[in-house]
């Protein structure tokens, strides 16, 4: 199984290709051509925390994945959100890769915002203001 760290994932992300992939995935999801059930979460009440699972299948790209993300808001010496993405073979269900999820999440969020800007902005727009705290 392939295992990629945050640094390795970051080096491999191509923003233009990612934006195209996000556009295709969003279109397929909107057309009912993808399976993305609601996330489930296991609560960790003594830490006011949770572990969530976010599975998805996108037939057009044969992508069968799940994101596991922990949310530990009381963490002070490490990130409050930590994630991995597991990629499975869509034909046999064999695990293929374990990827650090933080870089992918940040890049996908940015790609989704860029896509929304492309689709929703007036064609004569020249200025974009982005306000937020990041991922």
Description:
The protein is α+β, with helices and mostly antiparallel strands and 135 residues long. It has a single domain, classed as ornithine cyclodeaminase, domain 1 (2-Layer Sandwich). 32% of the residues lie in helices and 30% in strands. The protein is built from 3 helices and 6 strands. Helix 1 packs parallel to helix 3 and helix 2 packs across helix 3. The longest helix is centred in the C-terminal third of the chain and has 20 residues.
Task: Offer a quick outline of the entry.
This protein has 135 residues and is an alpha+beta fold.
Structural class of the secondary structure composition?
A: alpha+beta
Q: State the CATH architecture.
A: 2-Layer Sandwich
Question: What order do the strands of the largest sheet run in, or round the barrel if closed?
Answer: 1-6-5-4-3-2
- Average residue pLDDT: 93
Radius of gyration, CA atoms, in whole angstroms: 17 Å
- How many structural domains are formed by the residues? 1
> Shape, please?
globular
Cα(first) to Cα(last) distance is 28 Å
CATH structural fold name:
ornithine cyclodeaminase, domain 1
CATH superfamily: ornithine cyclodeaminase, domain 1
Helix content: 25-40%
The multimeric state of the shown protein is: single chain
How many beta-strand elements? Answer: 6
The stretches of 5 or more residues where confidence is low (pLDDT under 50) are none
- Helical region count? 3
SSE topology:
Blueprint: E1 2-4, H1 6-12, H2 15-30, E2 40-44, E3 49-58, E4 63-71, E5 81-88, E6 95-100, H3 101-120
Helix pairs in contact: 1-3, 2-3
């Amino acid at each position: 199984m392939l295992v990629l760290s945050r640094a390795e994932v970051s080096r491999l992300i191509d923003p233009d290709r990612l934006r195209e992939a996000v556009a295709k995935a969003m279109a397929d999801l909107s057309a009912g051509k993808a399976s993305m059930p609601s996330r489930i979460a296991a609560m960790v009440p003594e830490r006011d925390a949770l572990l969530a699972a976010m599975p998805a299948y996108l037939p057009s790209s044969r992508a069968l994945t799940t994101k596991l993300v922990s949310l530990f808001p009381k963490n002070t010496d490490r990130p409050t959100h930590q994630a991995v993405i597991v990629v499975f073979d869509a034909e046999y269900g064999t695990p293929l890769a374990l990827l650090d999820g933080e870089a992918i999440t940040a890049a996908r969020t940015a790609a989704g915002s860029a896509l929304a800007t492309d689709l929703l902005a007036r064609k004569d727009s020249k200025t974009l203001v982005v306000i937020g705290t990041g991922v």
